Amino acid sequence: MKSLAELQAIRDKAKAELNLRQENPDAIRVLVGMATCGIAAGARPVLNAFTEEIAKRGLQNVTITQTGCIGICQFEPVVEIEVPGEEKVTYVKMTPEKAVRIVNDHLVNKNVVTEYTIGANT
Amino acid sequence: MRELSLNVMDVAQNSVRADASLISITVNESKEKDLLSIVIEDDGCGMTEEQVQNVTDPFFTTRTTRKVGLGIPLFKLACEQTGGSFSIESKVDCGTKTTANFVMSSVDMVPLGDINSTVSILIRCNPNTDFLFTHSTDIESFTLDTRQLKEILGGVPLDNPDVVVWIEEYLKEQTQIIYGGVIK
To answer: Which domain does B61 fall in, by range?
Structure first.
């Protein structure tokens, strides 16, 4: 059974590891479009795939956020990746499989997956 | 929408955008009463009377990126097609309460789906908003209150990976209990 005591242990562990992520200006931001259009097109499994893959790889400087509709509903699920100092990349018609590849290629190895971007799909 | 839990996520997003500090999501499933009720209540900026009247109109939206707003109309449709009822009450600066009642035995009933996934995503993606989630059945009910979690965690954020796993496991276990799958 998950108990609140267990949560205290998690707190102590996190504090011991100094793992408290402050507002990090260098953090990479992953923005998943989660308005009606995004949700209906399947954004939730995409967001879950990002979370799982990022946790699996232990990436510390990535934050995943939900965002609204940016007006390109026909391309949903849409994911935007903001790396500080670089141009924002917009990925369209996302799937959980594509999300895994984007984490590996783009977030880890810094290679934009051009074939999934909006530029390659219009 | 394939699952009601996706509608819940959509409507809760509206609450987030309304700058709510507390969003409560209450799901009550009663086989005895043949009723599933979903209530989403927030203390956000609320809506004017005119907005409340227009909110179920798909061609009414306050956003500027597109001309349609389907979130509420889809939720209302899902609910009314089962023979259920739908209502929204709102007051400027006080908040909004959305209530949807579904007739569970209707052939047009959309399944509730993975409501736990909806709740855990909402919590971890909106660490500055508090969520109060209550899920009950004829057997039992449980509550997850992020204000209580924050008190215990004392500064460790709710999107800490270990905390996320704890929340997911907690929701899963409690759901099994209220569906009668596990004896305490």
So the answer is: 4-178
